[in-house]
Amino acid sequence: MPKIQIIDPLTLLGREALQLLGGDPHLASDLAYHHTTADDEQQIAELAGEPALVPPIDSADDLADADAVLVATDTPTLRLEHVSRFCEDHPDTPIVVMGRLPGDWEGLQPAAGVDPDRATRHLRVAHPALVALWTVVGALDHLDPVQAVVAALDPVSSGGAEDVERLARQAAQRLQGAAVEELINDRVLAFNLVAGDDEDLNRDAALLLPNLEVAATRTATGCFHGHVAHLGISFRAAIEEHEVLEALREDPRVSEPDLPLSLDACVESGLVALSMPRLSRDGRLLAVTAMVDGLRVGGAATALQILRSLL
Description:
Helix content is 25%, strand content 24%. It is an alpha/beta fold. It has 2 domains: 4-126 and 299-310, Rossmann fold (3-Layer(aba) Sandwich); 130-292, Dihydrodipicolinate Reductase, domain 2 (2-Layer Sandwich). Strands 9, 10, 11, 12, 13, 14 and 15 form a 7-stranded mixed β-sheet that branches. Strand 5 (68-71), helix 2 and strand 6 (95-97) form a beta-alpha-beta unit. The longest helix has 15 residues, at 161-175. The radius of gyration is 20 Å and the shape is globular. The model has no long low-confidence stretch (mean pLDDT 92).
C-alpha cells in the first residue's frame, strides 16, 4: 500500500479529503500528516473516528518516505517551503495540490480528473468552475464543441475557514448599519459581488482544454459555500436539445439537469449539478448553469481521483 503524506489536513479541503478517505481503504491504509502553520505544537486530525497527530514540518526530509503527497494548504507560510523543496527533489513522486497557492505552485499543470495522456507527476487541481466546464465538455465531446465561455462565481469558502468567519462578521456589521472593519482580500463581500482578476483562470482553461477556445471571467460573491459556473458552449454544427440531454444524463459525473437549481442542494455532492440546457435558434450555442460543492468537485474528490490515477 502506498504511504501518503497529507499536508495541512485540518483546512477545509484537508478535512474534506479525510472524510472521503475514510471510505477508501486502499488510499487510507497508510497515511501520515504534517502541518505548515507557524504553530510549533502538534495538531490532532481524525480519520474514520480515529485520532492522529499532525506535527509541524521542519524539513523536506520529513517527507522522505512518502510515496505520494496531497497538499491541502490554504495559506502559504514559511514551512510550506519544505514541501516545495521536497517537490523539486522528487519529480517522480506523485504530488497533488488542492486550492490556490501562489508562487511556484501556480506553475503546476492543472488537472480536472484522470487524463492518461498526462506525463507529469506533479499536478494542481483545477478551479471548480473549470472542472465543471471540463466535465460538461467531455460529456458533449461527440457533438464537436469548438468554443466555450465560463463565468465563475466563487464563494468565500474558497479562501478558507477564516474567510467564512470574516464574511459572517461583515454581514452582521452591514445589517446593523455599521462600518465594515474587517475585509476579505481588501473587499467587502457581504451582500456583494466583486469582479476580480481572471488571468490565472484563463491560463488554466487554455491548459486544461487545449482543443477548445475558452474565455473565462471570475467574480467573488457573498455566498458562504458552493461554486457557480455559467457556461456557454458553441458547436461546429447545429445540434438538437435531445442530443444534449441524452449525453448529460448518461454521464455519471453529472446530475439530472433540472430547474430550479439551488446552490445549497449541491453541498456534499460529488456531482456537477446543471440547470436545463438551452440552445440558440440556430442550434449551435448552448447555455447552461453549473453548480458544485467546490470542496469536492475541483477539491478533495477531484484530488483523490487524480492521485489514484498516479499511483
